[in-house]
């Protein structure tokens, strides 16, 4: 029986399982890619993931949103 006390994952993290499945790398890998890119604006990070790694916009945006929250 599922744990009804556990709330469903919301926000950018809700994309993480499909990102890992589609691109074959753990979220920690993508966070390191973003970290290594240096200081950039949100959409510059999104463009990097889309252009250099072939990521879709929604997945890239979710990763960047999570990255920028943890970087604060």
Verbal overview:
- The protein is mainly α and 72 residues long.
- The protein has one domain (13-71).
- The chain has 4 helices and no strands.
- It has helices at residues 16-23, 27-36, 42-53, 57-71.
- The chain is globular, with a radius of gyration of 13 Å.
- The protein starts with 15 loop residues before the first helix and ends with a helix.
Largest sheet, strands/sense/barrel: none
What is the domain total for the residues?
1
Helix/strand structural class: mainly alpha
Low-confidence stretches: none
Total beta strand runs: 0
Principal-axis shape equals globular
End-to-end C-alpha gap: 38 Å
Task: Give me the strand/helix succession.
Answer: HHHH
DSSP strand (E) fraction? under 5%
Helix content: 55-70%
Mean pLDDT over the residues: 92
- Count of helix runs: 4
- The quaternary organization reads as single chain
Cα radius of gyration in angstroms: 13 Å
InterPro entries: DUF4287
Protein name: DUF4287 domain-containing protein
